[in-house]
């Protein structure tokens, strides 16, 4: 079970999935398993040994125009809706959400007052 406030997932957003996979396989020994996302293409789960630690997103489509390749970190929160209101009150800009990802959890993407972007999520296993 993830703990409130812990980092628990990371995704790399890339324009060259195969080169990214090769780089991390060669340098860190990561392996990958595919997840069919239907019209969204393939999502690649990053595995470090037997542990799934993150994912690879192919930056295809209008939503990624003008965006640089980057890592997105996810922090576990106990109640995404309540925490997003606290973040907004503390000066965050909410870029997206909160929204539900079936069988994954409820999440939001926000920009802290200094400009850095991060995702917060209440995992489905912790939702009421």
Give your account of this protein's structure:
This protein has helices at 17-28, 80-89, and strands at residues 7-14, 31-36, 42-48, 51-58, 70-76, 93-101, 105-111, 117-123. The protein is of the alpha+beta class and 128 residues long. Helices cover 17% and strands 46% of the residues. It has two domains: 9-71, 2,3-Dihydroxybiphenyl 1,2-Dioxygenase, domain 1 (Roll), CATH 3.10.180.10; 77-128, Roll (2,3-Dihydroxybiphenyl 1,2-Dioxygenase, domain 1), CATH 3.10.180. The chain has an eight-stranded mixed beta sheet, covered by helices on one side. The protein starts with 6 loop residues before the first strand and ends in a 5-residue tail after the last strand. Strand 6 and strand 7 form a beta hairpin. The mean pLDDT is 93. The chain is built from two helices and eight strands, in the order βαββββαβββ.
Please give a quick description of this structure:
This protein is α+β, with helices and mostly antiparallel strands and 128 residues long. It has 2 helices and 8 strands.
């Amino acid at each position: 079970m993830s703990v409130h406030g812990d980092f628990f997932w990371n995704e790399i957003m890339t324009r060259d999935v195969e080169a990214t996979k090769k780089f991390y396989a060669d340098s860190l020994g990561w392996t990958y398993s595919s997840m069919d996302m239907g019209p969204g293409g393939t999502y690649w789960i990053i595995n470090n040994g037997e542990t799934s630690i993150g994912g690879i997103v192919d930056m295809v489509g209008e939503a990624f125009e003008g965006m640089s390749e980057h890592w997105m970190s996810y922090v576990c929160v106990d109640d995404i809706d309540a925490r997003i209101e606290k973040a907004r009150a503390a000066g965050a800009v909410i870029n997206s959400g909160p929204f539900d990802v079936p069988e994954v959890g409820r999440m939001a993407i926000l920009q802290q007052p200094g400009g850095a972007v991060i995702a917060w999520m209440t995992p489905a296993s912790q939702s009421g």
